[in-house]
Amino acid sequence: MNSSTSFHVPEGLDISKLPKHIAIIMDGNGRWAEKRLMNRIRGHEAGAETVRAIVRTCREIGIPILTLFAFSTENWQRPKIEVATLMVLLKKFIDSEQNEMIENNIRLNAIGQLEKLPKDVRISLKRTMDLTGKNKGMLLNLALSYGGRAEIVDMVKVLAGKAIDGKMDPHSITPEIVADHLYTAGMPDPDLLIRTSGEMRISNFLLWQIAYTEIFITDTLWPDFGRDEFLSILIDFQNRERRFGNVV
Ligand code: IPE
Ligand code: IPE
Ligand code: MG
Questions:
Q1: What is the pLDDT of residue 5?
Q2: Mutate which of 203, 206, 207 to test ligand 2's pocket (most atoms within 8 Å of Cβ)?
Q3: Sign of the C-alpha dihedral, residues 196, 53, 79, 151?
Q4: Given the CA of residue 74, which atom of ligand 2 is nearest to it?
Q5: This prediction's pTM
Q6: What is the mean pLDDT of residues 206-222?
Q7: How far apart are CA 200 and CA 104, in angstroms?
Q8: CA-CA distance, 75 to 86, in Å (whole number)?
Q9: Is 71 close to ligand 1, i.e. is its CB under 6 Å away?
Q10: Phi-psi domain of 146 (left: phi exceeds 0; alpha: psi -120 through 50; beta: other)
Q11: How confident is the model at residue 114 (pLDDT cuts 50, 70, 90)?
């Protein structure tokens, strides 16, 4: 995508009422490959193409924040060869997308236990995050080695440390203070969470942040997911009634 690309607003989509933050559990790469009698790795490669398409679409229509669940704390338990290849693909993705992110004013950020990532991935990530750090067009947030429970534990450790040091009165802790100590500090909660490939679960993603997020689960496997289905989910989202516990 660049500024000269024309964008036709799909019928039914209200461009003035888009979600400010979309989170996606990109699931189903392995099943996509297994269905084709291919190695699971081929599914992850195909999945990377979907990531490109969805990032472009979000930038084009003006979604301010996109958070993608790319690798969970639990995914470290997968066979060594799959983990190692996923890390190679991750580095390849960051390096190959760097210029497009710069050109399209996209800021890259990562959330999770980043210290657990291999050194070359951390270096690529830091370089691209530094190079795109001032971009304001869109925030692309990659959840890497991310676990919602680990995030909450990290937050508790920081707040407990502040309390012990006398820097914070435990009785003054509010939901806002908790949110300010999560990896997503400063970001609004997701308005919409999409999970591909049909599993009806959260798998330890953004546990605190999705308290009032609208959830959409599609059976489509992540490598088969694309712009048209994504836009139709946005239209579905716009037709939902969000009540936040109140009455209408
Ligand atoms: C999602 O696809 C990608 C990661 C979790 C890294 P999966 O690899 O979980 O694919 P399935 O769920 O086995 O089909
Ligand atoms: C969730 O998918 C994590 C990512 C998409 C990165 P999983 O495939 O790891 O989740 P489960 O095992 O089906 O719960
Ligand atoms: Mg899966």
A1: 53
A2: 203
A3: negative
A4: 9
A5: 0.96
A6: 98
A7: 34
A8: 10
A9: yes
A10: beta
A11: very high
What tokens were used for 214?
């609208």
Active-site residue 27, yes or no?
yes
Integer Cα distance of 246 and 248 in angstroms: 7
d(CA 3, CA 6): 8
pLDDT in tens, 128-175: 999 999 999 999 999 999 999 999 999 999 999 999 999 999 999 999
Nearest CA, atom 6, ligand 1: 71
What is the 223 CA–ligand 3 centroid distance (Å)? 12
Q: Encoding tokens for residue 100?
A: 């497009």
Domain 18-189+199-230 top-level CATH class: alpha beta
Residue 4 is predicted with a pLDDT of: 46
Instruction: Indicate which residue of 75, 105, 135, 204 is catalytic.
Output: 75
If we measure between CA atoms, which residue out of 106, 38, 51 comes closest to residue 226? 51
